[in-house]
Hints:
Blueprint: E1 18-19, E2 26-31, E3 37-41, E4 45-46, H1 48-64, E5 68-70, H2 85-90, E6 95-103, E7 109-117, E8 122-131, H3 136-152, E9 161-168, E10 171-178, E11 185-190, E12 195-199, E13 205-210, E14 217-222, E15 228-232, E16 238-243, E17 249-254, E18 261-266, E19 273-274, E20 282-287, E21 293-298, E22 305-310, E23 317-318, E24 326-331, E25 337-344, E26 347-354, E27 360-362, E28 370-374, E29 380-387, E30 390-397, E31 403-407, E32 412-418
Amino acid sequence: xxxxxxxxxxxxxxxxxxxxxxxxxxxxxxxxxxxxxxxxxxxxxxxxxxxxxxxxxxxxxxxxxxxxxxxxxxxxxxxxxxxxxxxxxxxxxxxxxxxxxxxxxxxxxxxxxxxxxxxxxxxxxxxxxxxxxxxxxxxxxxxxxxxxxxxxxxxxxxxxxxxxxxxxxxxxxxxxxxxxxxxxxxxxxxxxxxxxxxxxxxxxxxxxxxxxxxxxxxxxxxxxxxxxxxxxxxxxxxxxxxxxxxxxxxxxxxxxxxxxxxxxxxxxxxxxxxxxxxxxxxxxxxxxxxxxxxxxxxxxxxxxxxxxxxxxxxxxxxxxxxxxxxxxxxxxxxxxxxxxxxxxxxxxxxxxxxxxxxxxxxxxxxxxxxxxxxxxxxxxxxxxxxxxxxxxxxxxxxxxxxxxxxxxxxxxxxxxxxxxxxxx
Length: 424
């Protein structure tokens, strides 16, 4: 079992953009971090239904992170209302979020909120957003991102998106959803499996593999327009696309010259350059965040291991040495850690290596993990696993403490990819 070495890409049948409400991901929190921040997210004042919905999204986001402990709020509180810090402190709160929703012109609403440090009895700031009634979830995610960053000092990921493949009733769908699994949309539908979705750095495109021409072909798909073009369609197999940090190039795996080997090409399919040569199989490329190296899986040394090669091509350097099976290397956004799948006592589990010290930690206790993908702030890693013969997605924090399980009712979910931060 070598995650992508033995895989082939499959045929695309339908190509559309449509809602898939019946296939929403549900998220179950199975572990939480130590020293969670006790926080109150009061219902916002003003328009009752919309105000409550926005606050509910903020609560769900922060609780799902495993880093916050929610404290009951009671009555709605506006952002400009006086704050009884002593009362909130007596309830054990460290932070308080209050807000309001008021109608404006053209059927829109203005959402205002403020974050308070209860212990220091001080305001940590606030913002105002103008939204439609349909943008309540988006606004809630943005507020949660603000609160997260103010209290933890790193960007929140609640406004980001994830891509994954769902198999249900003989149909495969490449779906895109909010990070909380809601608002799922189908970007691609097929009677055959779809594999290897990869986000462009700006979040506007997905590269993926399909088999419309009776063989694996790499496509680049614009999410805004639904248009796409062929990026790699050479003799043999074309697979495993990975974006360079500048969004101009892709690393791909081609068999046009024999065995599976690494190449780079421009996103439009031009400028093909071979990056490395080996007598084995090289696959699963991934660019380092600085664009200097491409990490990949190879069995050139006799067993599947992680290697890296300069992005312009050259000699490969082996990265993993412990164990006989280490595949799918994926670097953290800061370039300091490398997630990968390792065989550990017969179980295929997600591991994280500190690249400076080479210290490795097993993050999961499951049996069939694959396809790790870092959140853009590096805090969480999304991956695919299997429970009872059914594919599910899961997420674990980089310290192994926070755990989540994401599943679709009556569906098999695989091939996850966490998208980048979106420009506001």
